[in-house]
């Protein structure tokens, strides 16, 4: 009889005992059990058995040809262990070296709840030191068996061994992003910033970061979650605003990494932004019309207008300017104060000394004789202040500027247009990037580069004039083309 025929006969003979195995009538198990044999023994379908094999809930099989098989000894030993309760709960187990101690094993257990077959439970535990991988695997099965036995005895309080709750890593493992912000980041980082920065962090976290990521553990914010968060912001706001939110989240995650709460930070790149078009600025004629309207309105309006359009001061720096910061003899102004919601603080950028223009110096000399007494240069006296002198605000400066724009026949705008006009005008007149940076008092040169487009236009105009002159000389005549 051919060998292949004998094997088929033997296999058929082994499978013919399925019913006897299922009834467990004491007959001897076959020497080799295949999927149908083992499934009949457990009274489940072959498909269910294959699922248990994938989850590691039965003894690991070997391959006999293309078929999965188990030896009689392996199945018998596993059944005996089930009787003792060691393998009573089907478990899928994953072992890997423990990150904090490579001599130990990190055991990740997934098993069906004995009381609720449709619910899967998961435990991560660390095996005692000195165990091999096989010993750690057996130890993990024993922990699940102990839990199962304890539940059968009615003791619901017994759980698998966990990390010491007093240890630092145990306390930090389940910390959510919202808890981290309230307990660590806000008191240890945000409160050390300027009030405007504090309000910015609070607004961004309450409006965007908290609702989307606040309930997640810190360790769960990985690259995949970061990409999802980035996509959510893209649909909520403009790219520039979304990048502000992304920058603050990156700052939070970097702080968490430095605090040893997470081992790494996800890659959270900013959204691509469209190229910025040149902002509108006042021409020399419009500037002169605005200054004449301010001088006609009074010395206070003239000082406010010239501080912005000649010196390029920010509106909050105009509100905080003190007489002690002004040296009329030398014609210099030291910008060292700023206000935010009525609170005095250091200015944005760097503290610097500027040389005032001649017309600003004349306006300050004229205003000094009629200025209200006090440390500040400018005060407002309105019905909101009970007609008593009070410090200017962003709103009051904007209101004054809008009145001057109406008088000069210009469209209304915010005060920052005057600062942008002053810096762009310097670049248009040929000032170097370092000269513009000194007047603007920017901390970074990249911020100043936004004002160089007008300087580039001037250079391009000069280059065109050179080409026109060369063309006229080559043609022996005069080029009457209009100056661009």
């Amino acid at each position: 009889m051919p060998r292949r025929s004998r094997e088929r006969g033997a296999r058929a003979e082994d499978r013919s005992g399925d019913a006897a195995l299922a009834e467990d009538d004491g007959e001897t198990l076959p020497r080799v059990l295949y999927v149908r044999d083992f499934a009949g023994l457990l009274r489940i379908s072959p498909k269910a058995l294959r699922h248990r094999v994938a989850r590691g809930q039965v003894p690991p099989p070997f391959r006999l040809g293309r078929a999965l098989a188990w030896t009689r000894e392996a199945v018998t030993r596993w059944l005996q262990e089930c009787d003792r309760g060691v393998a009573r709960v089907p478990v899928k187990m994953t072992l890997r070296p423990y990150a904090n101690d490579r001599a130990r094993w990190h055991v990740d257990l997934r098993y069906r709840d004995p009381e609720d077959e449709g619910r899967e439970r998961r435990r991560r535990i660390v095996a005692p030191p000195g165990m091999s991988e096989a010993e750690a695997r057996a130890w993990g099965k024993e922990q699940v068996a102990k839990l199962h036995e304890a539940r059968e005895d009615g003791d619901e309080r017994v759980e698998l061994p966990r990390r010491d709750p007093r240890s630092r890593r145990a306390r930090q493992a389940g910390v959510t992003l919202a808890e981290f912000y309230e307990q660590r980041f806000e008191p240890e980082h945000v409160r050390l910033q300027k009030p405007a920065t504090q309000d910015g962090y609070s607004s961004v976290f309450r409006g965007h970061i908290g609702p989307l990521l606040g309930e997640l553990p810190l360790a769960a914010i990985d690259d995949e979650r970061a990409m999802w968060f980035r996509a959510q912001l893209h649909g909520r706001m403009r790219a520039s605003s979304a990048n502000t939110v992304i920058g603050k989240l990156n700052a939070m995650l970097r702080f968490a990494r430095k605090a040893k709460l997470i081992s790494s930070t996800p890659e959270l790149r900013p959204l691509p932004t469209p190229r910025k078009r040149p902002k509108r600025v006042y021409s020399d004629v419009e500037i002169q019309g605005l200054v004449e309207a301010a001088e006609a309105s009074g010395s206070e309006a003239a000082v406010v207008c010239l501080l912005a359009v000649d010196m390029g001061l920010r509106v909050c720096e105009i509100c905080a300017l003190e007489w002690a910061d002004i040296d009329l003899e030398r014609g210099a102004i030291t910008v060292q104060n700023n206000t935010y919601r009525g609170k005095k603080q250091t200015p944005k950028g760097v503290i610097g000394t500027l040389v005032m223009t001649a017309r600003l110096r004349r306006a300050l000399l004229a205003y000094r004789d009629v200025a209200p007494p006090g440390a500040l240069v400018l005060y407002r006296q309105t019905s909101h202040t009970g007609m008593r002198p009070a410090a200017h605000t962003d709103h009051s400066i904007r209101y004054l500027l809008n009145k001057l724009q109406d008088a000069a026949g210009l469209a209304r705008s915010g005060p920052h247009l005057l600062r942008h006009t002053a810096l762009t005008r310097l670049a248009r007149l040929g000032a170097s990037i370092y000269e513009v940076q000194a007047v603007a008092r920017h901390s970074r040169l990249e911020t100043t580069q936004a004002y160089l487009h007008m300087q580039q236009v001037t250079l391009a105009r000069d280059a065109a004039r050179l080409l026109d002159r060369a063309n006229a000389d080559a043609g022996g005549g005069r080029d009457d083309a209009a100056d661009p």
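Residues 452-484 form one domain. The first strand starts at residue 32 and ends at 34.
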